[in-house]
Amino acid sequence: MGDDGQSRGISCAVYPGSFDPITFGHVNIVKRALKIFDRIIVAVAINTSKHGTFTIEERVDMMEDVFRGDANVEVASFSGLLVDYVRTVGARAILRGIRTVTDFDYEFQMALANKSLDPDVEQVFMMTEGKYLYHSSSIIKEIVSLGGAVHEMLPPIVEKRLSEKLRGRGTGS
After folding, report:
1. C-alpha to C-alpha distance for 114 and 110, rounded to whole angstroms
2. Residues 6+ positions from 146 with CB-CB distance below 8 Å
3. How does pLDDT run across 118-135, given as a tens digit for each residue?
4. Rounded distance between C-alpha atoms, residue 75 and residue 108, angstroms
5. Are 99 and 133 in contact (CB under 8 A)?
6. Which of 28, 38, 129, 158 is 20 to 30 A (C-alpha) from 152?
7. What is the dihedral of CA 117, 120, 121, 125, to 10 degrees?
8. Do 93 and 13 meet the contact criterion of CB atoms below 8 Å apart?
9. Structural class in CATH, domain 12-133
């Protein structure tokens, strides 16, 4: 088919989240979504009421390292209403990963709110692959803080930085 604008559908999606830290589950959602969308913007939400393990700048920096080889993945941060950000960057879809029924319940409510704010923005839910179901940032942080290994859950740069932050094992380099 030619590029008539109709055969391509939605070409850009925003994948928002706190990503504190980004896990292999998040990375998997992005990689799989690239089979559907031409471009993914991984957007770190700035929430002034929450104090994360990593600063917004640290999260963006780690994600830029993780996605360095992916020309169709952009990493950014945003504040304010998600639908406003989606419009600003010219995307037409919000991408969300779903692990559990509890995730779905929350995301469904958010999707309805977003749809009422902007009926033109679509919400796309992608089920997490089974091997990533337990990759919760809070569980991962607890494992690291207790000295456990998380190399199967986090990209190496993220595991290193999380370990340094939670265990105080800075290498001095």
Report:
1. 6
2. none
3. 999 999 999 998 888 878
4. 25
5. yes
6. 38
7. 110
8. yes
9. alpha beta
Q: What are phi and psi of 8, to 5 degrees?
A: -90, -25
Residue 86: CB atoms within 10 Å: 25
Q: Does residue 107 sit in helix, strand or coil? A: helix
87/43 Cα distance (integer angstroms): 13
Known catalytic residues? 26, 50, 99, 137
The tokens of 152 are what? 């199967």
Token pair 């830290």: residue: 21
Can you read off the two tokens belonging to residue 133? 């179901």
35-88 tens-digit pLDDT: 999 999 999 999 877 788 999 999 999 999 999 999 999 999 999 999 999 999
Query: Using CA atoms, how far apart are residues 67 and 20, in angstroms rounded to an integer?
Result: 16
* DSSP structure class, residue 74: E
- What ranges do the domains of the chain cover? 12-133
